[in-house]
């Protein structure tokens, strides 16, 4: 199987343990690291000497992506490139996701140009906020003619409600 636009072959390189929950919502760094260690196994026969493009849905704290890159390199990957299917998460989410502080978010720890080397990748790129809006069809109208949208507060800092401190 190939990715249509790039012609890059699509093969599995990780085996995911479905019984380990989302690592980014664990209460502390050590718990997140332990969850990642239990969550992934490498299919090394698919990696040896290859250049890998790993697509991730998002990077919150970076707890998962760094160890995965190390696993891929230890299994023989020649290069590891990360593509993130969301924009960088830079702001806390007060709408129900466990992202309490800006300082915890990987995108705030280093400039974008330095994030790849910080997590051990050869390159790292995010989807833009505009690209995300296009992908999720912004502006669908509900029955009562109120246009809907998507909250992007954790991406751009524009919260849909006033926050009182």
Could you describe the 3D structure shown?
The protein has 165 residues and is α/β, with parallel strands linked by helices. Helices cover 24% and strands 13% of the residues. It has one domain (14-156): Rossmann fold. It has helices at 29-39, 65-74, 112-119, 129-135, 153-156; strands at 14-16, 40-42, 51-56, 79-84, 123-126. The strands form two sheets. The chain has a three-stranded parallel sheet. The model has no long low-confidence stretch (mean pLDDT 82).
Key terms:
PRTase_dom, 5 helices, Amidophosphoribosyltransferase, Rossmann fold, globular, glycosyltransferase activity, transferase, alpha/beta, glutamine amidotransferase, 165 residues, three-stranded parallel sheet, 24% helix
Structurally, the number of domains stands at 1
CATH class annotation: Alpha Beta
Averaged pLDDT: 82
Reported by name, the CATH topology is Rossmann fold
Tell me what the CATH architecture is. Answer: 3-Layer(aba) Sandwich
Helix content: 10-25%
Instruction: State which percent range the strand residues make up.
Output: 5-15%
- Unreliable spans: none
Strand order of the largest sheet: 3-4-5
Largest sheet: 3 strands, parallel
- The total of beta strands comes to 5
Supply the number of helical segments. 5
- Helical/strand content category: alpha/beta
Q: Oligomeric form of this entry?
A: single chain
Walk me through the topology.
Elements: E1 14-16, H1 29-39, E2 40-42, E3 51-56, H2 65-74, E4 79-84, H3 112-119, E5 123-126, H4 129-135, H5 153-156
Parallel strand pairs: 3-4, 4-5
Antiparallel strand pairs: 1-2
């Amino acid at each position: 199987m190939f990715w249509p636009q790039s012609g890059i072959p699509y093969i599995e390189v990780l085996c995911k343990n479905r019984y380990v929950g989302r690592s980014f919502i664990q209460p502390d760094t050590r718990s997140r690291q332990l969850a990642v260690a239990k969550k992934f196994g490498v299919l090394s026969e698919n990696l040896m000497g290859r250049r890998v493009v790993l697509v991730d849905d998002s990077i919150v704290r970076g707890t998962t992506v760094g160890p995965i890159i190390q696993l891929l390199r230890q299994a023989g990957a020649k290069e590891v490139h990360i593509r993130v299917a969301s924009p960088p998460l830079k702001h806390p989410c007060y709408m129900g996701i466990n992202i309490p502080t800006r300082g915890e978010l990987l995108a705030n720890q280093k400039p974008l140009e330095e994030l790849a080397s910080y997590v051990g990748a050869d390159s790292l790129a995010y989807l833009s906020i505009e690209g995300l809006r296009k992908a999720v069809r912004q502006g669908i109208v509900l029955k009562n003619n109120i246009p809907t949208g998507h909250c992007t507060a954790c991406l751009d800092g524009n919260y849909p409600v006033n926050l009182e401190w």
